[in-house]
Design a protein that fits this description.
By secondary structure, this protein is α/β, with parallel strands linked by helices. The protein has helices at about 5-20, 25-30, 35-40, 50-60, 85-95, 105-125, 140-145, 170-185, 205-215; strands at about 65-70, 100-105, 135-140, 150-155, 185-195, 220-225, 225-230. Strand 1, helix 5 (about 85-95) and strand 2 form a beta-alpha-beta unit.
Length: about 240
Amino acid sequence: MPPFRQQVSSLTQEASTFIHSPKPSRVEELFGFGGWFDRTFGKQPGERLLTWRAALSIFVQRNGSLIVETGCQRQIEDLGDGSSTRIIAMLLHKLDNGILHSVDISAENLNSAKTVIYQLQAKEALRFHLVDRVRFHLSDSVEFLRKFDSSIDFLYLDSCDYFEDEPGRSICQAHQLKEIEAAFDKLSAGAVVLLDDNDFPHGGKTKLSKQFLSNRGWFCILDWTQSLWIRSIGE
Ligand SMILES: C[S@@+](CC[C@H](N)C(=O)[O-])C[C@H]1O[C@@H](n2cnc3c(N)ncnc32)[C@H](O)[C@@H]1O
C-alpha cells in the first residue's frame, strides 16, 4: 500500500480539477461543502461517510455511469450495513444518468432493497423515476460478475457478512477475491472500486482482494471501514 502522504497527494490531484474551476463544477455542486451529498445524507453514512463521498465524487469526475454492487441493502433503514442501494440510487437519480446493477443471493433481501427504492420514489415525490435507475439480480455474485458483459465504472463489493473466526473468515475473504477476479477485466479505465468491511481484525473481508488490486497496479486512496481503490488514468 502506498504511504499515507502519497495517498493524500492522489486525492488532492483528483480534487484539484474542480477546486480551480471558475464556476462551480457538477462535482462541487454535488460533493462540495453544503452540496447535494451533505443536504441529502448529512452525517448519516457514519463511519462510511468519507469513503462514500470520495468514491462517488471520483465516479462523477470520471464520467462514470454503470455501477455494480454485490450485496444489496437488506433493511429499510440500515445505516449499520451501509445503505448502499439507497445512496447509489439517489446519486444516479440526481445525475439523471446511469444504472445500478444490484446483485444478491437472497430473494428476501432483494425484496427489501426494492421496497427501499419504491418507498423513496413515493416519499420524495421524485421527478424522475428512481426505480428505472436500479436493476435487481437474484444470483450468486461471483456467477453474476463472470457473466456480466458491460463495462463497470464503479464496483462495490459488500456481499457476505464478515466473520472473524474460522472458517467463516477465510470463506468471506476468498469470496471477495473471487468477485474482484471475476469483475477485473470488465472494469473501465477510470473505474472506482470500493470494498466494504475492511477495517476488522484479521484483515476483514478485503484482505485478499486488496492484495489482488495492489499486485495489478491499483492504489488505495482511503482505507477505513471501506477501502477505496483507483488507478491512474491519462498517463
Ligand atoms: C452486508 S449485506 C449488504 C449490505 C448493503 N451493501 C448495504 O450497504 O446496506 C450482505 C448481503 O450479501 C448477500 N450475499 C451473501 N452471500 C452472497 C453471494 N454469494 N452472492 C450474492 N450476495 C450474497 C446477503 O444476502 C446480504 O444481503
